[in-house]
Design a protein that fits this description.
It is built from eleven helices and nine strands. It is an alpha/beta fold. The strands form two sheets. Strands 5-4-3-6-7-8-9 form a seven-stranded parallel sheet, sandwiched between helices. α1 packs parallel to α2, α3 packs across α11 and α6 packs parallel to α8.
Length: 350
C-alpha cells in the first residue's frame, strides 16, 4: 500500500481488519484464514481533496486486500469524514455479504413473530420486501421499525387478509408496481382458534383453519408462480410447524393443517422445478412468540414442554428467520421439496 497517500493528518483513525480466502457469500469462523490485523493512521486530509483522498484510500484497500471485512473502528474524526469512509466501505463488500441483493420478497403475516423475523433477515440479506398483515395498525408499526433500520426504499407494507382474493391480488400487483417483480414468496399466515381433540372441532372452525393455513398458501402460490417464472426462477417457503410432523395433543385441527403444508411442498416443488423455482418448508418447534404464548407462558405447561426439547429452551423468532432466508438464498440452490425442522431437537418423524 502506498503509505504516502494516507499519511497527512492531525487526527487518528484506527481500523482492524482481516482477509478471508475462498469465501463468496457468508462469513463464519470456520472459513477464516490468513488472519491478521493492521492499524492505519489517517491524519489531516486537505479540505478540498477530502473526497479524492478517501476514494484513493478505498482503491488501495481494494487492490491489496480484495476481500475486506471491517471488524473494529475507533475514530476521532469529524462526522463528514467518518460518514464518507463508512459509505465507501459499505459499498466495497455489500455484494459479498448480501446474498439476496436484487431479489424481491413477499412475506405474509410478517408484522410479528416468525414473519417479522423473516422480514428482517431477508432485507438484511439484501432483498426488497413487502410485508403484510390483516391489521393496518400492525403493518404501520412494523413498517416504521423496518424502514427506520433498512430504508423506505427497501421495505413496503400492505394490509392483506390472505383468505380474501382481492387482498392477495392487491398485494401482488402493488409489489410488482413498486419493486418491478417478485422472486420470493414466504407463506407464513396461520390461525388456530381452537384447542382440543380433532373430533371435537366444529366444521366452521375447521374450514377457517384450512382456509388460512392451507388454501391461502396454495392460492398465493398459484397466483405468484407466473411472476416468478417470468423472472427466470425463484423460491417459495411455507412455514409449517413441528405439530405438522409430530402432532401435538390439544392442537388436532391445527396439526392436520400443518401436515397438509408438507404435502403441498412436495407436490409444488415437483411441478415448478423445471421453471427453476425451488419450494421448501420450515417446521419450527415451539418459538417464543405471541402466537405460541399459550404454550410458552403457562408455567406448568411450559415446564412439561421443555422436557421434550433436548436443548431445554424455546426457540427465538430470528432462529427461524435465518432458516427461511437460507432457503431463499443461492446457498440452498440444490435444495427443493424439503422440510427443514428447527425445533431444538424435538421428535420430528411421522
Amino acid at each position: 500500500m502506498n503509505k504516502n497517500r494516507i499519511g497527512r493528518c492531525d487526527r487518528d483513525l484506527f481500523i482492524s481488519y482481516f482477509t478471508i480466502d475462498g469465501l463468496s457469500q457468508q462469513f463464519t469462523s470456520s472459513y477464516i484464514s490468513n488472519k491478521f490485523s493492521v492499524n492505519l493512521k489517517i491524519t489531516k486530509l486537505d479540505h478540498c481533496n477530502r473526497k479524492q483522498n478517501f476514494e484513493q484510500i478505498i482503491l488501495d484497500l481494494k487492490k491489496y486486500i480484495p476481500r475486506l471485512l471491517i471488524m473494529n473502528c475507533v475514530y476521532k474524526l469529524s462526522s463528514p469524514i467518518v460518514t464518507s469512509f463508512g459509505i465507501q466501505i459499505k459499498k466495497m463488500f455489500s455484494n459479498i455479504t448480501k446474498p439476496l441483493e436484487g431479489k424481491v420478497a413477499i412475506i405474509t403475516a410478517s408484522t410479528d413473530g416468525i414473519g417479522f423475523a423473516a422480514a428482517k433477515q431477508l432485507v438484511s440479506d439484501g432483498a426488497s420486501i413487502m410485508i403484510s398483515s390483516r391489521k393496518k395498525n400492525n403493518v404501520e408499526i412494523a413498517l416504521e421499525q423496518l424502514q427506520k433500520q433498512y430504508g423506505a426504499n427497501k421495505v413496503k407494507g400492505l394490509v392483506c387478509h390472505v383468505s380474501k382474493k382481492e387482498d392477495r391480488t392487491n398485494l401482488i400487483q402493488e409489489t410488482i408496481k413498486i419493486f418491478g417483480g417478485i422472486d420470493i414468496l414466504v407463506s407464513n399466515a396461520a390461525t388456530n382458534p381452537t384447542s382440543g381433540s380433532v373430533l371435537d372441532c366444529d366444521e366452521e372452525i375447521w374450514d377457517k383453519i384450512f382456509d388460512v393455513n392451507v388454501k391461502s398458501a396454495f392460492l398465493l402460490t398459484k397466483e405468484i408462480a407466473p411472476h416468478l417464472i417470468s423472472r427466470g426462477g425463484g423460491s417459495i417457503v411455507y412455514v409449517s410447524s413441528i405439530a405438522g410432523v409430530n402432532p401435538m395433543p390439544m392442537l388436532g385441527a391445527y396439526s392436520v393443517s400443518k401436515t397438509a403444508l408438507l404435502g403441498l411442498t412436495k407436490v409444488v416443488a415437483m411441478d415448478l422445478a423445471e421453471n427453476n423455482i425451488r419450494v421448501n418448508c420450515v417446521a419450527p418447534g415451539i418459538i417464543k412468540t405471541k402466537f405460541a404464548s399459550a404454550l410458552t407462558e403457562n408455567e406448568s405447561l411450559s415446564e412439561h414442554l421443555l422436557q421434550e426439547i433436548p436443548i431445554k429452551r424455546f426457540g427465538r423468532p430470528e432462529e427461524i428467520g435465518s432458516v427461511i432466508s437460507f432457503l431463499c438464498s443461492p446457498s440452498s440452490s440444490f435444495i427443493t421439496g424439503e422440510v427443514i425442522v428447527a425445533s431444538g431437537g424435538m421428535k420430528s418423524r411421522l
